[in-house]
Design a protein that fits this description.
This protein is an alpha/beta fold. The protein has one domain. Helices cover 36% and strands 17% of the residues. The chain is built from 7 helices and 9 strands, in the order ααββαβαβαβαββββα. Strands 1-9-6-2-5-3-4 form a 7-stranded mixed β-sheet, sandwiched between helices. Strand 7 and strand 8 form a beta hairpin.
Length: 266
């Protein structure tokens, strides 16, 4: 794949990062320090995390993955020779991370970008139990610190996985920070979406989707989309809109495939 880059070719270093880029990222650092976990919460995580992992394994083992549209798009990145930036909506984290986990088992070197707040502690431990790496922070906050971690992980051949509209939304709005990350790193964005015939939707900003046991699921992987490394910061909006529309289009395609429409790709 011509637009995919090897870890050594990303050119992502803090020393060669343009000053205006660094200042832009630095200005978005969170001013609030990460809350310290209470002893009660530590005990809750210590006792509850193994149970939670077991429940997740049990639940996801019942899912019936009927189709993965565009599965071949990720093949060049299996094995760590090439890296990318997989993105999906926060709402689709259960299905999206399950798909990433299946790639990790085949040699895909994934690194999840997880919230730097205490709320990210459980996702971090679950991801590490899967064999993935984790960066604490976000594409919009704590940017300079997250960038340093991303630099190290990508040099080691890891692809950075993000929830494109996280961590606080609005829902289905692709954050500019994710585009900026891909632009600076010189790696293509790989959009991901899913659809389930039966699911619970949590009453929160993202309507977080948890497919019910034995749900039928269709996933879709979009064509890798490179962000030009020389694109000016004030001209990233068209790229943001493009990848946002790409994820929305994949969602619609998953719905059509799940409903048996002949318009869905094979």
């Amino acid at each position: 794949m011509r637009d995919a880059l090897k870890p050594s070719e990303t050119g992502l270093t803090l020393s060669n990062l343009p000053r205006q880029d660094f200042d832009s990222i630095e200005s978005r650092r969170s001013t609030a320090s990460r809350r310290r976990m209470s002893s009660g919460r530590r005990l809750y995580y210590f006792l509850g995390l193994p149970v939670l992992r077991a429940l997740i394994r049990l639940l996801t083992s019942t899912y019936r993955i009927e189709r993965i549209i565009g599965a071949d798009y990720i093949e060049p990145f299996i094995g760590g020779e090439l890296i990318c930036a997989p993105c999906y909506w926060h709402q689709h984290h259960v299905c999206g991370s399950t798909l990433i986990r299946s790639w990790v088992r085949r040699g895909f070197k994934a690194c999840f970008l997880v919230s730097g707040s205490v709320d990210g502690d459980v996702p971090e431990r679950i991801a590490r139990a899967w064999g993935a790496e984790v960066i604490r922070g976000s594409a919009n906050q704590s940017g300079a610190l997250a960038l340093r971690d991303m630099q190290r992980r990508m040099k080691d051949g890891y692809s950075i996985v993000t929830t494109a509209d996280g961590p606080r939304g609005p829902k289905y709005e692709f954050k500019l920070g994710a585009v900026l990350m891909a632009r600076i790193a010189g790696v293509p964005i790989v959009p991901i979406a899913c659809s389930a015939d039966r699911a619970w939707y949590l009453r929160r900003w993202d309507n977080f989707m948890v497919p019910k046991p034995f749900a039928r699921i269709v996933l879709a992987v979009g064509q890798p989309y490179p962000i030009p490394s020389n694109a000016p910061l004030d001209q990233l909006e068209p790229h943001r809109q493009h990848v946002q529309e790409a994820v929305m289009s994949l969602m619609a395609e998953c719905d059509r495939a799940l409903n048996g429409s002949s318009e869905a790709r094979v």
